[in-house]
Amino acid sequence: MERVERSINGKDIKIIIGSGLENEINRAMENYSKNISFVSRILKEKYRNKINAIYSNKYFIMDGEKSKSLRYFNIVIKKLLTAEIERNNSVSYIGGGTIGDLIGYAASVYKRGVNLTAIPTTLLASVDSSIGGKNALNFMDIKNAIGTFYNPDYIFDDVDFLVNSDASLLKDGVAESMKMALIKDKNFFDYLMKNTINSIHNKESLEYIISKSIKIKLDVISQDFFDLKKLRYLLNFGHSIGHALESYSDNRISHGTAVANGMVLESYISYRSGFSDPFYDTIRSAISGYGIPVIDFKSIETEKLLSYIKNDKKVEGKKLNMVMLEERGKAEISEIDFQQLSNYINDYRART
Ligand SMILES: NC(=O)c1ccc[n+]([C@@H]2O[C@H](COP(=O)([O-])OP(=O)(O)OC[C@H]3O[C@@H](n4cnc5c(N)ncnc54)[C@H](O)[C@@H]3O)[C@@H](O)[C@H]2O)c1
Q1: Do both 203 and 324 map to the same domain?
Q2: Do 147 and 176 fall into the same domain?
Q3: CA 227 – CA 49 distance, rounded (Å)
Q4: Which residue range forms the structural domain that includes residue 223?
C-alpha cells in the first residue's frame, strides 16, 4: 500500500493505492458525521461483499456517457437534499470516469462544495480522471460542455476492482499511462513497452502503473491547476488527433484507442517538424502489444479529420498549439499551422 499526499490549490489531497482498502476507506469516512456514496450499478453484484464492507449510505446509479447529463445531475442533487447532506458531510463515488465526472461536478456545486471521496474502479479513472480536479457534464451533444475544477479530499485506488475484472477494461487506462510516460518518464515508458495487457493484470503491476501515472499528472497539474498557463497542455499529447478521431467515428472508437493512435500520428508529426527521431513505430508496437487496435489512417480523410481538430481548445488563429514529442519522456508545446498539419497527415497516410 502506498500513500501520496499533495496540497493543490489550497486543498490537501490524500491518495491511497493498494488492495483490500475497505478499512482505510472506513477510517476516512469516520471523519464525517454523515456520508453518501454513489455506486456504479454494474458493480453491485460482482463486488457485493467489497461494497457492503464500506460503511456509507449507498445509492446505485447508471454509469456511461449518458449519466454525465443534467438529468442525472438532478437525480444526484435531489438525493443529496433528501439525505440532508450538509457541507461538512461527505459525498463519494465508486465507479469509472463517467460517474466520477458526474459526482465530482455535483459535489463541487452542491451547497457551494461538499467534501468529496473518489473510489475509481477503472484504470482510466485511477490514472487519469480522478486526478487533476476536472469534472464535467455533457450538454446538447457537446462533450464536457459544463464543468468545474474541484479536487477530492481522498482518492482510494483499490486495485481489487481491476484485478477481478476483464483485462480488456485496462486498455483505455494504459493509453493514458503511456501518454504520461512519454511526456515525462522514459523508464516508465520502457517498463510499459516490456509488458502486455496480461502481464500487467495483477496487483503489483497495477499499483506500480497507478502510482507512476498519478505522480506525473500531479506534478503537471500542480504547476497550472486551472489550465491558464498552457502547462497542462502537455497532458494533451495524443489528444488533438485523438479527440478528432473520436468525433470522426461518432464515438465508435473508444477514448483510449483514439488517444493511443493520436500519439502515434502526433509523434510522426513531431518527427517531421524536426523535434525528434522517428519514434512512431515504437509507440505503434507498444499499443498493439496491449491489444489496442491500430487505426489504418488510409481509411481516414485528412480534411474531415482536420475539421474536428479545428475545434481543439489549443487552436489559436489558424494554428494549433501541439504537444511535440522530443524523445521518450520529454515533450514541449509548439505551434503548427493547418496546412503543414495536413501535409504531414497525408504523408503518414501514404506510408502506412
Ligand atoms: N475529468 C477528467 O479529468 C477526465 C479525464 C479523462 C477522462 N474523463 C472522462 O472519463 C470517462 C471515461 O471513463 P471510464 O473509461 O472509466 O468510463 P466509464 O465510467 O463509462 O466506465 C467504463 C465501463 O466500465 C464499467 N466498469 C467500471 N468499473 C468496472 C469494474 N471494476 N469492472 C467492470 N466494469 C467496470 C462501467 O460500467 C462502464 O461500462 C469519459 O466520460 C471521459 O470524458 C474525465
Answers
A1: yes
A2: no
A3: 40
A4: 170-352
List pLDDT tens digits, range 270-294. 999 999 988 899 999 999 999 999 9
- Closest atom of ligand 1 to 104 CA is 1
Task: Give the nearest ligand 1 atom to 172 CA.
Answer: 15
Question: What does the alpha-carbon distance between residue 143 and residue 85 come to, in Å, rounded to a whole number?
Answer: 29
Whether residue 141 has pLDDT greater than 80: no
Choose the final residue of a domain: 146, 165, 184.
165
- Whether the CB-CB separation of 206 and 198 falls below 8 Å is answered with no
Q: Residue 297 has which C-alpha cell?
A: 489512417
Ligand 1 center from residue 108 Cα (angstroms): 19
Give residue 343 CA to ligand 1 midpoint distance, Å. Answer: 35
For ligand 1, say whether the CB of 122 is within 6 Å of any of its atoms: yes
| Whole-number Å distance between alpha carbons of 134 and 225 | 9
Q: Taking residues 253-267, what's their average pLDDT?
A: 95
Are residue 262 and residue 348 in the same domain, yes or no? Answer: yes
Alpha carbons 143 and 174: distance in angstroms, whole number: 22
Ligand 1 close to Cβ of residue 121 (< 6 A)? yes
Mean predicted confidence (pLDDT) in 287-306: 95
Quick one: which atom of ligand 1 is closest to the CA of 65?
Answer: 41
Nearest CA among 94, 95, 92 for reference residue 114: 92
Over the stretch 145-181, which tens digit does the pLDDT of each residue have?
A: 999 999 999 999 999 999 999 999 999 999 999 999 9
Looking at 165, 199, 224, the residue that finishes a domain is 165
Ligand 1 center to residue 124 CA distance, Å? 6
Q: Give me ligand 1 centre to Cα 271, in Å.
A: 32
